[in-house]
Amino acid sequence: MKIFIIKSHDGSILGKDLEWTDGTNANLIFTAQHRDIALNQLIELNAKNIHLRAEIVACDADKKGRPTLVLDDTARLSEAPANTDQVSAA
Questions:
Q1: 3-state helix/strand/coil string of the chain
Q2: Looking at the whole model, is its pTM more than 0.90?
């Protein structure tokens, strides 16, 4: 089953309380079964914050209706090594 979530440009995910979260707790993520419901929510968020850059992301749901793609992405981010030794040439 596909569900839709709202993700901001910095990787934050919209929670059920309409606050941005890191997405580690899948029970607290805002989900919509239909894309138009997620789009309506995104429009309301943009009306409150005109500088918001967010997108609707389709992902698979587990048996309880929680997004599984989000959990996979956050696990990959936490496992990725931070390379802070490089210096910018700009």
A1: CEEEEEEECCCCEEECCCCEECCCCHHHECCECCHHHHHHHHHHHHHHCCCCCEEEEEEEECCCCCECHHHHHHHHHHHCCCCCCCCCCC
A2: no
